[in-house]
Amino acid sequence: MDKREPTTEETAAGQRSQPGKKRLPLGMVLLVLAVVLVVAALTTMEDGHHFAALRRWLAYGDSSATQDMYVYAADSSNRYGRLGDSLVVVNENVLQIISRDGEPVCDMSVRMDAPQLSVGEKQAAVCAVGEDTLYVLDEDGVLRTMQADRGLCYYSARMNGGDYLAVTGQSTGYKAAVSVYNPSGELIFHFDSYDNYLGDALVTEDGKYLAAVSLGSADGAFASELMIFDLTTAEQTGSCVIRDGLVLELVSRGDRLLSLCDKRFTITTVAGETLLDRAYGNLYLHRYALTGDDFCALLLGRYQSGNICTLTTYDLDGVELASLDLTEEVLDISAAGDYLAVLYGEKLVIYDRTLTERARLDSTDYAGQVRMDEDGTALLISGSSAWRFLP
Question: Is pTM, for the whole model, over 0.90?
Fold first, then answer.
């Protein structure tokens, strides 16, 4: 059979019919280009804060200033924590988990004096100092219950950002013990202390190290010591002495350990290097926020009571970022992501790490506490209800 060469018209038609050769309509190309330009502009303007507002709008889809109402019984011993989109409320008699739509997911009776609440990424831990029961929660309720050995008790339970749980408590024949559990609840580390009392402990955010707080003395004065353990080798790899300081709060950020004490604030590395040792001197600690992405904040005042205070932010190398003199009553402060929320007597102001104002709410409806979120929203908490502020 003779082969016939295709004509010019047939060749052009074949080329037009080849898959993958279609061009996008000009209108669609322009739309995509416009979206890219808008996102780029929002990202660069004001260090990306306009883009953060766009993300909040896409996430919550409502232009109203407040959203997500949580209702619970008022109790002076209430402790609050955000667990995903749910709110955990714990007091001496009740443990509750309330979903974003306001429905109680968990509502159980407990008996705990002065309960502690520590929230991780997807789990939270609840216990009371000197008692023998510990609850691990997720958004669906109580994930597991842990019981100390007969006659013994827990001192502390801290959940890190990866849901690794560090528990300190009594141990038969020893002064104290610390145990670490992975997110599945498996014991991966245990240490019995012959010489020192261990009051607190925390797994670093990368899950590689454990920092345990021992109580002792140095140069004839009271001191706290941070004992650093490698969780892979179960060996102690370092330590750092905090002289004249009782650790009240311990936070991990990267390889940094933030230790809030009764008389000073320190930032150290897991290698034991001290980056900041900020003694309060003749000032009083009023409030603090240690959970910003790479900054923290202290509110110090000249008087034990009163409104005249100075709010100062530091980066995680211990360098002061900004300082702001305040003359209004501050009820609470909270940090997350790039934001710092300051709840005044009648208003809420959200700052960035340089204490530049980014948003405000002039009516807080008797809120007494605030929880900042990484997306720039803030949860306002009153005696019997909580709601989200969308800047």
Answer: no
